[in-house]
């Protein structure tokens, strides 16, 4: 890939469009000089999912912008694709895909989509987008290998051989950074750093080889965060 000046990565956005735009504008992404990777979880929990959807769909496929899939995209996809339209008590008790999504922040997303009067079009377009979102990407920059995925990985296994469930749902590295003894730099979202006892900013662990980017965007004291992995500079929304 062309030589890049900044390798930017965004953590989870979770429907917080205003916070996202503040961080994005601070970062000042330049497609001629920068590469920007999004770690997934664009919707759910936050009150502005539709503007986030529209922004992502408008920018997907643009030069030097990579959008990955998160577990919330996975939940959305399975919930909307679910053949059984039943909403009876049993399906909720036993965790249907719809129940899983709605009970994990999807309820506000669905409500906001309905309010637009364009529900069917938005759902269909977002489903088509999710189908194109990769689970991971790898970037070579300044002689180093950088791995990106939403949640977790096994650092000793090639990316193409990682388990989907680990990439989307795991928390092993976030909770046990010492498990990463490799040379590659790994950037993760999914696990809010506040839940691990850190303040709301990206965390460089394991001598900078593990970067935690989820700064609890939807929390009261949370932020949407972007970081340049080459310089360590951070761009964040206000709390």
From TrEMBL:
Keyword Iron-sulfur: no
GO CC annotation terms, alphabetical: cytoplasm
Pfam families for this protein: Metallophos
The keyword Hydrolase appears for this protein: yes
Domain of life: Bacteria
EC identifiers of the protein: 3.1.3.16
Full protein name: Putative serine/threonine protein phosphatase
Keywords, alphabetical: Hydrolase
The species this protein was found in: Selenomonas ruminantium subsp. lactilytica (strain NBRC 103574 / TAM6421)
Top class in the EC scheme: hydrolase
Domain Calcineurin-like phosphoesterase per the UniProt entry, residue ranges: 6-209
GO molecular function, one term: bis(5'-nucleosyl)-tetraphosphatase (symmetrical) activity
Gene Ontology terms: biological process: RNA decapping
């Amino acid at each position: 890939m062309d030589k890049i000046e900044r390798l930017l990565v965004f953590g989870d956005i979770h429907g917080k469009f205003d916070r996202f735009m503040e961080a994005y504008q601070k970062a000042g992404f330049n497609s001629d000089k920068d590469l920007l990777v999004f770690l997934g979880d664009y919707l759910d929990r936050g009150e502005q999912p539709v503007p986030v959807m529209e922004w992502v769909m408008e920018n997907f496929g643009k030069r030097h912008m990579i959008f990955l899939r998160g577990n919330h995209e996975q939940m959305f996809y399975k919930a909307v694709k679910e053949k059984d339209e039943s909403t009876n008590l049993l399906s909720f008790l036993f965790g249907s895909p719809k129940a899983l999504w709605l009970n994990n922040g999807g309820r506000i997303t669905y409500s906001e989509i309905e309010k637009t009067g364009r529900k069917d079009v938005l759902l269909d377009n977002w489903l088509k987008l999710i189908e194109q979102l990769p689970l991971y990407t790898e970037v070579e920059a300044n002689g180093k290998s950088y791995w990106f995925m939403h949640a977790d990985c096994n650092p000793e296994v090639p990316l193409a051989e990682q388990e989907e469930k680990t990439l989307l749902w795991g928390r092993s590295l976030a909770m046990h950074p010492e498990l990463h003894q490799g040379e590659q730099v790994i950037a993760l979202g999914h696990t809010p750093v506040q839940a691990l006892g850190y303040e709301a900013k990206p965390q460089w662990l394991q001598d900078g080889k593990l970067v935690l980017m989820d700064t609890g965007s939807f929390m009261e004291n949370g932020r949407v965060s972007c970081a340049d992995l080459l310089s360590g500079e951070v761009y964040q929304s206000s709390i």
